[in-house]
Design a protein that fits this description.
Number of strands: 0
Radius of gyration: 30 Å
Number of helices: 5
Largest sheet: none
Order of helices and strands: HHHHH
Structural class: mainly alpha
Length: 152
């Protein structure tokens, strides 16, 4: 084989090796960035979960100290537990949160409540207070239980 052809193959081989090294280097950088992003996402989700658990505990304390309306607490518990542990809403004593939520979810809140006729709001409040009275003991027991619950 002529010497020039051998050199051409060597140069082509070196170019291919260099191109592969650049490709491997870029892929390793991309992989490192993806792993970093994944770790940041996992840390954020863990922090968010911890904050939600803390919110559950704060709401439970507020219920125990009668600092929040039971209906509002049930709506908040339901929203938080939907994310933290949805199956918990099906188990006693926590199922009361789902029960109360189901009974009052049709009622307007926030801006919609402000835009609703006052007589309708009074009627809905009366209905809401009746639901709270009906389930008051269960809500207090569930709030105490959820405050001491260990989320996995």
């Amino acid at each position: 084989m002529p010497r020039g052809l051998q050199l051409a193959f060597i140069v082509i081989g070196l170019v291919v090796i260099a191109a592969l090294l650049v490709y491997i280097w870029r892929q390793s950088r991309l992989l490192a960035q993806q792993q970093l992003q994944k770790r940041k996402t996992e840390e954020f989700q863990a922090q968010r979960r911890d904050e939600m658990i803390e919110s559950v505990r704060i709401i439970a304390i507020a219920v125990e100290e009668n600092q929040v309306e039971y209906s509002e607490a049930c709506l908040r518990f339901k929203g938080l537990l939907d994310y933290l542990d949805p199956e918990l809403l099906l188990k006693p004593p926590f199922q009361v949160f789902q029960t109360v939520h189901d009974k009052i979810q049709h009622m307007p809140t926030h801006r919609a409540r402000k835009n609703t006729d006052a007589s309708v709001v009074r009627k809905l409040d009366k209905e809401r207070f009746a639901v709270e009275r009906e389930h008051a003991d269960e809500i207090r027991r569930a709030a105490t239980a959820i405050r001491h619950h260990r989320f996995e």
